[in-house]
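Dear U.,

For the methods section draft, I wanted the exact inputs and outputs in one place so we can describe them consistently. I've listed the two proteins in the order they'll appear in the manuscript figures. Please don't edit the token lines directly; just add comments below if something needs changing.

First protein:
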Amino acid sequence: MPNIKISAVSTRAPRGLNKEKTKAKTDTLLGELNELQNLLFAENKHSVLVVIQGMDASGKDGVIRNVFGHLNPQGVTVQSFKVPTPLELSHDFLWRIHQHAPAKGMVQIFNRSHYEDIIVTCVHKLIDDETALKRMKAINDFEELISTHNNTHILKFYLHVSPEEQQGRLKERINDKTKQWKYNENDFAEAKHWKEYMKVYEDCFKNCNAVPWTVVPSDQNWYKEFMITELLHKKLSSLKMKYPGLKKS
């Protein structure tokens, strides 16, 4: 996905797409994903890494709950990457990432990921352009390594929410008692760096695209969840997995 301009991509579902029919299709696909995940776990030949990136309030947690929450929890793990700890900072930036790469048979979700060590650090001028390019190369090597040597299939999603929708969701966290626990005053400050974030994301799309990115329109949760469900379903279906036979004693 080279040279993509995020502002040129809609944050909403295609005009005329029927919401209720799409939600019904999502439910059907989720039901079929249960069987595909069971095959993945039983065959134990492949693994899946799902990378979820996006601005604050783009709906990362909702995707994990409403899509991956339908799968068998024994075969799914979720890892969030926040500000590195002192121990993590004493190692190379991928040290904390690599130990969470998925084992065969597993679906691993990164709720924010190795890309944070480029995106946040560039926006806040913690690293220079030369260091950022070196990190992008290291990420490409890492993704090739786990793909080639562990049969890991990587799906990378950028949840594309509009600034207006983001502001509405952030304000909702103040007023909705069920969402107040998510409130972080710093989110509003980060939103002021919108243009800088978009530029760095576009640089990542351009320089880290051997594993392609999917920009997911995310102003409407039902469409976002449909897109991710459909692409995960397609990926698992394409593996042509089979149940292993009886084990020899």
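Second protein (the one for the lower panel):
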Amino acid sequence: MTSKDKRNHEISESRALVRHAFGLAQSLGISKILVQVEEPGDFRAIENVRKSENVLWLARDPELRFKLRRGDAHIVIPDTGLTRLSQLNIALFQAVVKEHIALDESVVCLTGVVGSMRLDTLVIANPKRDFPWFKRRDLDATKTVVGSREFGRIIDIALRFSSEGREGKAIGSAFVLGEPEELHSHLRQLILNPCEGHARKLRSIHSEEFLESLREFSALDGAFVVNTKGIVESAGTYIDAPAKKVKLSAGLGARHTAAASITAHTNSVAVVISESSGCVTVFHDGRAILELEKPKPIPRPRS
């Protein structure tokens, strides 16, 4: 089979999967379908089969929203090589937080290997049923800290650091997002704060230029403390919070315990990169609410 024949076969497979997914949703009375938009590469494959279903587009490229049908919702996820399951985890998490999907609503999900340009996976998900962090009753409180642009940016940075590392070595680090005044009593500076004295705009997590400084500072022991405006207040910061209210999975170490502990005592969220596994874990209210596997490099077309 030539490469052209193989590609045509893969396109046919994707289209067949789309047809069956919409047919399944219609037969089960499921009104919402989540589609990873980059992989099919052909909006017509969706438009040809959709009827009254609401399509929720999952995209790595935020500019794709301009190509969508007016009224369709979209979710932007980090442009990293997330596994199929991690793509769905972060998409469903955001969909519930942004109220695109109800907490106890089933949704058909279509996704594929990042960069493959084909859909190959169909999942019927229900956030409350399938994901432990949605079984809590304090979802409204969670929304206030994980529904922000700053939270999304920290997730993006953590996944990039996990995938790329630093000078060929794995990165292990933690980010705490919250109000500095509330966090202050649980923090202690291990070294002179390398962020102190620099202009706020130069310490913004939204600055691509500052990203490499963050990568270098990740070699320091301790955590990054980020305020709710996305300004890094400190690096190399020791978290000193009681671990009595913390619930952790087996195998997680001191960095995860400290991150979970500060979220148990403050209205903050912590994002931890595991140096050993590369997994990214999000903590709120003393427990993990989101776990993402280490991304793989995305195949990029040569220019």
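Candidate sentences for the figure legend, describing the second protein: The first strand starts at residue 32 and ends at 36. The chain has nine helices and twelve strands.

Thanks,
Y.
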